[in-house]
């Protein structure tokens, strides 16, 4: 916890005290002090104020982690909510921004997100194109989540794999020879009703989206999509509140409909 306010550090500690788990909590009141701790200790999660005595919180995080491939889970805090600060936070791969005053529940939500993002999840990519599978794998590997990714080149192979592995999320191409995406989705959900299916396609036709919904897909992505879209659908799949630093997404979610029955887009804030 990095903040020159004893009150803020106390709020965070009060939230952490509600967790039934052993935690080693280190406190710092200045940027230079925090940077020294970051460089000397292996820290998993950081709550860091932006405006600090000495160097700023952003500078401390940049000096400590900008070149690291896997930085720790970082939460920025400030009484100011400036767009430029948010943009710098995204570049530093900060997960969340909390505007002061925040609540204990905001801290607990961040910890819950950390727990889920740290958990390895089984994912399946299904597409008859090896190039498309390779591209999707690359995008999934750049997401915020830890994924153990398997691949299938057909609906039949996907159903076979689902018989031996409980996939938490499946990215399923809608247009494949043999069993198409919606037909495959039905078989996959009969094998494991808890599986979250994301239908993907180069087309965005209402009929295709509807058939994907009826088959049980909870989200629809149009190719090409980005890691920010994957982050959005996985937050929804795992019932995690999307962070305020999340980029907008073009993902279409099956539970969002307009008043006239059409499908609307839900954008991550």
What do these coordinates show?
The model is unreliable at 256-269 (pLDDT under 50). The protein contains 10 helices and 9 strands. The chain has 269 residues and is an alpha/beta fold. 39% of the residues lie in helices and 16% in strands. The protein has helices spanning 6-17, 31-40, 57-65, 83-91, 104-117, 130-141, 155-162, 181-191, 206-215, 227-237, and strands at residues 45-49, 73-78, 96-99, 121-126, 147-152, 169-173, 196-201, 219-222, 252-253. The strands form 2 sheets. Strands 5-4-6-7-8-9 form a 6-stranded mixed sheet, with helices on both faces. A 3-stranded parallel sheet has the order 1-2-3, with helices on both faces.
Q: What's the arrangement of secondary structure elements?
A:
Layout: H1 6-17, H2 31-40, E1 45-49, H3 57-65, E2 73-78, H4 83-91, E3 96-99, H5 104-117, E4 121-126, H6 130-141, E5 147-152, H7 155-162, E6 169-173, H8 181-191, E7 196-201, H9 206-215, E8 219-222, H10 227-237, E9 252-253
Parallel strand pairs: 1-2, 2-3, 4-5, 4-6, 6-7, 7-8
Antiparallel strand pairs: 8-9
**Order of strands side by side in the largest beta sheet?**
5-4-6-7-8-9
Any idea what the radius of gyration is? 21 Å
Overall helicity: 25-40%
The main sheet comes to: 6 strands, mixed
> How are helices and strands ordered from N to C?
HHEHEHEHEHEHEHEHEHE
Average pLDDT metric: 91
Number of helices: 10
By DSSP, the count of extended strands is 9
SS class: alpha/beta
How far apart are the termini? 26 Å
Shape: elongated
Runs in which pLDDT lies below 50 for 5 or more consecutive residues are 256-269
DSSP strand content: 15-25%
């Amino acid at each position: 916890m990095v903040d020159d306010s004893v009150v803020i550090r106390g709020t965070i500690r009060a939230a952490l005290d509600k967790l039934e788990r052993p935690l080693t909590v280190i406190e710092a009141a200045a940027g230079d002090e925090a940077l020294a701790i970051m460089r000397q200790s292996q820290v998993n999660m950081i709550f860091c104020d932006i405006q600090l005595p000495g160097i700023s919180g952003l500078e401390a995080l940049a000096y400590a982690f900008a070149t690291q491939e896997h930085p720790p889970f970082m939460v920025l805090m400030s009484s100011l909510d400036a767009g430029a600060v948010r943009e710098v936070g995204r570049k530093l791969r900060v997960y969340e921004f909390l505007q002061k005053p925040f609540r204990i529940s905001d801290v607990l939500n961040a910890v819950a997100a950390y727990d889920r993002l740290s958990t390895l999840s089984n994912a399946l990519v299904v597409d008859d194109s090896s190039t498309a599978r390779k591209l999707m794998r690359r995008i999934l590997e750049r997401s915020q989540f830890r994924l153990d990714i398997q691949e299938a080149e057909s609906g039949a192979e996907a159903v076979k794999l689902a018989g031996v592995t409980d996939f938490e999320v499946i990215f399923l191409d809608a247009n494949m020879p043999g069993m198409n995406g919606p037909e495959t989705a039905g078989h996959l959900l009969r094998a494991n009703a808890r599986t979250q299916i994301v239908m993907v396609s180069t087309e965005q036709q209402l009929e295709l989206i509807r058939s994907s919904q009826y088959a049980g897909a909870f989200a629809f992505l149009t190719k090409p999509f980005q890691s920010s879209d994957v982050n959005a659908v996985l937050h929804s799949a795992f019932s995690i509140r999307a962070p305020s630093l999340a980029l907008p997404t073009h993902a279409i979610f099956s539970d969002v409909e307009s008043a006239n029955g059409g499908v609307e887009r839900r954008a991550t804030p």
